[in-house]
Amino acid sequence: MSSGSQAGADAFTHLGEDVRAALSERGFSTPTEPQRRAIPPLAAGDNALVLAPTGTGKTETAMLPVFDSLVAHREQHGPTAGFATLYITPLRALNRDMRERLDWWGETLDLEIDVRHGDTTDYQRQQQADDPPDVLVTTPETLQAMLTGSKLRDALTDVRHVIIDEVHELAASKRGAQLTVGLERLQLLSGEFQRIGLSATVGDPEAVGRFLTGKRDESDGDDSNGNGNGDTDAIDAQPAVKTSLDSQSPASVDRDFEIVSVDVGSRVAFTVARPEITPEDEQLAGELATTEEMASHVRVIRDAVAVNESTLVFVNTRQTAEALGSRLKKLDVSLEVHHGSLARDVRIDVENRFKSGDLSGLVCTSSMELGIDVGRVDHVVQYGSPREVARLLQRVGRAGHRHDQVSRGTIIATDADDTVESLAIARRASEGLVEATDIHDGSLDVLANQLVGLLMDVGEVSAREAYEVCRRAAPFHDLSESRFRAVVRELDTTRLCWLDEECDTIDTAGGTWQYFYQNLSMIPDEEHYEVHDMSSRTQIGTLDERFVVNFAAPGETFIQRGEMWRINDIDEEETRVNVSPIADPGGEVPSWVGNEIPVPRAVAAEAGEIRGVAGEQFARGADAAGVARDLAARYPAESATIEPALNPIEQHVDSGHPLPTADRLVLEQQANTVRLNSTFGHEINETLGRLLAALVGQRTGSSVGMSVDPYRVEFEVPSGVGLAAFQDVLLSTDPTHLESYLELALKGSETLKFTLAQVAAKFGALKRYQGRSRFGGDRLLDALEDTPVYEEALREVFHRDLAVDAASDVLDSLQAGEIDLELVGEATPLGSAGTTHGQELLVPENADASVIETLKKRLRNDRILLCCCHCKDWDHTTKVRRVREQLECPDCGSTRIAALNPWAEEVVTAVRAEEKDDEQERQTKRAYRAANLVQSHGKQAVIALAARGVGPDTAARIINNFREDEADFYRDILAEERQYARTQSFWD
């Protein structure tokens, strides 16, 4: 392997006559840099990973040598009977683009090109099976289905080239792990084929290249039996059984590959800006029903769109896209919103209008990071920190590619943390310091899915052969035989396969077929509601089930497609929300799950270093303007942008408190709030936070709530819990046992229960037709503990949310004195600054009357479980509006009535239990606190306790605000519900 290939003076000379003639006709006289460097090895048939910015001709780089190979093969051997080339993309929208871009080449070279994905008609599918095109553009999921069809399997035997577009996107997901095994299943049909990966810049190209090809890392150990970790089981103990698979040890797979990487850092330029509030913003704030600060952000984006012909405005969440888009539309800016929850027709229309010049801008999410063709882009605005170097390079890389122009982008920072973080990311991006791709290794639900797929392909197979096929895929190189065997037994238990222990073979079973076609995708199943505009009778998008359940009701307003809508009705059976357009600025922004982008350790650490450098200068007496000028010499921002971000640092230094930096942690406490100031990024902070919440809670017998950002972990603790408890955990916890502590901490968490339900569905342990509501989370945990399903759910939470090894290193350094730990008995300027997310700035400071009225109506109609904590015999579920002002038990007359979640039967069981375990004791205390609150405050307490995520402590805090205005009481509840929605996964 090499970092590049020795290209000839003209890469096009490596191509045949027909393709060179087509190039001349198309006007391609000079190859781009990726083409100069990649075409020679690709034309020689080498596997390759091509890394270059969007818009630099990566598609043609890959396809020109492939087209040349197809033409040459036709001339020598005649037309290919089956598919010769598969072009795999992660998005259907990319399929559409690829088809349009490749059609001309197909017509000119007399090659047939077609697309196949979930929306392809039955007629088109049949045509492709009967007369396969030379090149098929498809998705990973459609390849899964193709591998099981008899005609399509025949057509796939001719595959000689597989191109995977946006391979970095797949490498970091279970979809990618599934695809790698799918490619090994394809190889059983077609023999070895050329593998070409196309990607934006990645931090570890060698790892992504191995992911693409299945080549083993030379540093990996590998025994001749392919035993991975060395465990043995019945796979080795049984005699070999003849199967339809070729016997091939994983050790014999040695697919070399070239890495062709075009330097991105020298082709992009960034500016970080934080808008200053101007007199115009006061007027705009009133017009947009938002703050002056937010109005300044909208104004700057409006002006950026106005001075450029075509601008992409990237945001980090769909909520922000909707809210920002709605504000810009009110100013008559020529733009639209683009994200994955909009209807396909809406997205296509928006893309086409932008490409044709009818729109000047798009407010978009990560859906536009990938190579969807929207024509020329002059400028990219990133609203808020992009959170990652790779994301910034991918987004800004979409701008200005004609004549090797530099791609230019502006980051609009929203607050102090955001500004410092953006400075760090922009500098790191300019130097090409890209994060490593977080590849999903050893996903057991993917393994289960692909074992069933393999049985669909070939029928009965020996366990040894199936094991070897899976281990040829890079994410499963280290798969042990014991884990493989456990997964096979789990599939046998759920009747997805039949295991013959005596012969050590596996075969299809009664549930194989149904399971496989219901689980072609590894994307978790979540219910979505279609949103239909009743005035135009068109679908405008979708809403997540969680949003519909928590917020949606007839008469409520929300934002989608950057426009305001009022809900007419909700059809639960059809999972459909019918709406009408309105002109109301007070709509709720839909909450989509999984939008938060974690800030990596390296970025957060550099932000901590910036704090440290500035702090030292302030300690020596420097003023903010001078410090800002010094930083502006090293970072891409004007000193006027940097100076406001230094205010919390200067205030912190002036207060005399120790400054949290990359090598100093600061614990602070004010009342019931404890903060760990830690500049280690989301994953390490969450890992430390979960450890502290669990162990402090365990040692004090209290429930500890937690929320995380890249620079601090905030805990809500009961009275009497102080900093010493947190200090003791940090200094006394054995880092080598961190994983075990975290596993215990996660066991009862909502995060694990939710993930377990998703993994169980992919294992076939939770049948889709049963629905997740059949089993509560606790029952599911009890049923699946000590199974591969539970093991995988735990592995996924660790992989997705935590950084155990890195957090262990932090504890090691802390206990060795290499990282300082300081305690402060009050809130500090940096600790209390927090991170204000962009979408929160977009919401008016006071929710308007219609939102409050909707909340009030919803709470009145919510159900509540009432339980007597005196006699413990009486419990009753009713609607909040039917609850009397003063409650008493109809059996014993006591007024100690707990108001609980209507599904909290386990709390009632705990209250009635004579001998309680620790969990039941905790639940009982919670019920008593709720009863005391109801006894003191009556129906007001019942209303507060009926809110989403509001327990007795939070309800007491709401009530103790002593709001005279009823609307303010409901605003407090709304604020707590929104806080719970943001931090829900952190609460046990």
TrEMBL record:
Residues 212-236 are annotated as: Disordered. One of its GO terms (biological process) is DNA repair. This is DEAD/DEAH box helicase. Keywords: ATP-binding, DNA damage, DNA repair, DNA-binding, Helicase, Hydrolase, Isomerase, Nucleotide-binding. The lineage of its organism: Archaea, Methanobacteriati, Methanobacteriota, Stenosarchaea group, Halobacteria. Residues 39-220 form the Helicase ATP-binding domain. One of its GO terms (molecular function) is ATP binding. It comes from Halonotius roseus. It comes from the Archaea.
